[in-house]
């Protein structure tokens, strides 16, 4: 091969190196510009961030557990009710549960717990309370410090109204973000979502039909989401609650609070 061939090869190699070097510089510049752009967004310490600042992270026991349900061979089910308390339906739910001797977990809104404390004061024996934020705003859109302040305020109001400080958190709409995780860890909460949701809109004016649907879909370790606040459509589920309870008991299910569900599954209920 002549000089021209060698020159062409060297030229190609040199140009390739220049291109690769330029690509590397360009890639680094892209990463740098992305980082700078991200710093202008509410990411560092904002809704997406599960850390705060550069100092020691004050995160309670150092971790947070997120639950949708548990894996167990025992026929256990946890009923949960969100958004209360309010005079609208909370007393009806508590009366039904008391009549059927069923424990449940109530995720309370702090502002409502403070305003309607007489509805729940003295009525939570055998039940469990969790935190559902101060005013049912989307915690996943708030920065870490704001989420913590919101949940701390709600925590204190729920403890004052019920006599029981919450140890569980269910964020409104189940929306999680890094800031929610961070605040939960600081407060030593478990984050509780759900396995199965009551779907009142699918059974208009048919409480028995809705109850049958829930009974059929429950599996051991299920956490069921319901509401004791809302519009009239939700009365389908609440009016069918006795049928739901009877149907699940006929299938051999035992009703437990969320924390009891976790204890029993971890303590020998063949958690797997």
Could you explain how this protein is built, in words?
Residues 75-256 form the NodB homology domain. This is Peptidoglycan/xylan/chitin deacetylase (PgdA/CDA1 family). Pfam families: Polysacc_deac_1. Keywords: Signal. It is a single chain. By secondary structure, this protein is α/β, with parallel strands linked by helices. It has a single domain, classed as TIM Barrel, CATH 3.20.20. It is 44% helix and 12% strand. The chain has helices at 3-39, 90-100, 110-115, 117-120, 144-162, 178-186, 207-217, 235-239, 241-250, 258-266; strands at residues 66-67, 76-82, 105-108, 128-131, 168-169, 190-192, 196-197, 222-227, 254-255. The strands form two sheets. Strands 2, 3, 4, 7, 8 and 9 form a six-stranded parallel sheet that branches. Strands 1-6-5 form a three-stranded parallel sheet, with helices on one face. Helix 6 links the parallel strand 5 (168-169) and strand 6 (190-192). The protein is globular and about 55 Å long.
């Amino acid at each position: 091969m002549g000089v021209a061939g060698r020159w062409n090869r060297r030229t190609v190699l040199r140009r390739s190196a220049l291109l690769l070097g330029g690509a590397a510089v360009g890639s680094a510049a892209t990463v740098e510009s992305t980082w700078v752009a991200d710093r202008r967004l509410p990411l560092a310490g904002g809704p997406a961030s599960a850390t705060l600042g550069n100092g020691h992270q004050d995160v309670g026991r150092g971790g947070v557990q997120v639950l949708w349900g548990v894996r167990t061979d025992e026929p256990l089910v946890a009923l949960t009710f969100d958004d209360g308390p309010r005079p609208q339906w909370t007393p009806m739910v508590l009366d039904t549960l008391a009549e059927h001797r069923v424990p449940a977990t109530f995720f309370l809104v702090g502002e409502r717990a403070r305003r309607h404390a007489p509805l729940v004061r003295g009525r939570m024996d055998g039940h469990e309370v969790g935190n559902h934020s101060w005013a049912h705003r989307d915690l996943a859109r708030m920065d870490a410090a704001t989420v913590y302040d919101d949940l701390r305020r709600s925590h204190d109001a729920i403890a004052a109204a019920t006599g029981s400080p919450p140890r569980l958190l269910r964020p409104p709409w189940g929306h999680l973000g890094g800031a929610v995780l961070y605040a939960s860890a600081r407060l030593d909460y478990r984050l509780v979502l759900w396995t199965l949701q009551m779907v009142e809109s699918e059974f208009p004016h048919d409480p028995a039909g809705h109850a049958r649907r829930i009974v059929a879909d429950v599996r051991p370790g299920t956490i069921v989401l319901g509401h004791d606040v809302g519009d009239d459509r939700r009365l389908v589920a609440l009016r069918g609650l006795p049928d739901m309870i009877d149907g699940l008991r006929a299938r051999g299910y035992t009703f437990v609070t969320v924390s009891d569900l976790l204890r029993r599954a971890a303590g020998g209920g063949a958690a797997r």
